[in-house]
UniProtKB/TrEMBL annotation:
GO molecular function annotation: DNA topoisomerase binding; double-stranded DNA binding; histone H3K36 methyltransferase activity; histone H3K4 methyltransferase activity; single-stranded DNA binding; single-stranded DNA endodeoxyribonuclease activity
InterPro entries hit by this protein: Mos1_HTH, Transposase-MT_Hybrid, WH-like_DNA-bd_sf
GO cellular component, one term: condensed chromosome
Protein species of origin: Adineta ricciae (Rotifer)
Record-linked Pfam families: HTH_48 (PF17906)
The organism's place on the tree of life at top rank: Eukaryota
UniProt domain Mos1 transposase HTH: residue ranges: 13-62
PANTHER family: HISTONE-LYSINE N-METHYLTRANSFERASE SETMAR (PTHR46060:SF2), MARINER MOS1 TRANSPOSASE-LIKE PROTEIN (PTHR46060)
Protein name: Mos1 transposase HTH domain-containing protein
One Gene Ontology term from the biological process aspect of the record: mitotic DNA integrity checkpoint signaling
Amino acid sequence: MDTDHELKMNLSRREIRVLLLHEFRLGHNVTEAASNICSTMGEDVLPTHTAQHWFNRFKNGNLELDDLPRYGRPLEVDVDLLKQLIEQDPRLTLRCLAEHLGCSYVAVEKHLIELGKTWKYGVWIPHEHLTATTNGSAILSLVMRSGCYILTTRTDANGLALVRQA
């Protein structure tokens, strides 16, 4: 069983496509091809719909096995530039940041989460400022006053955070 798993993990897309082309040239149908490859290379190494896609390409005379170049927004995000943009203006929205970086807002959001940032009160702040500290008895409160945060750990009798104006 371990060898099946190792084989599955080591097969590249191109290697799977070579196997599909081999099965196609043997005259097997899509189901047979997927079954043959999965039985020798590991369960679920090849979904049937992927085999169907490649068999359609082969039937149309396209025997190219390599991925075509992709166009559109880059998948990479310049994390250093993202940090710099957030430090300069924490009020920049996801869409605005995506425009600056030339990528999707989903990619920007993913990297902001990885950086430990969260969107609160119209600004990007470190996520740790939202959690309680020391036994949960102290409350860390954030109040935005002209771009500055006032932190407090004192509470009134009702458990509400006491905040003093800057």
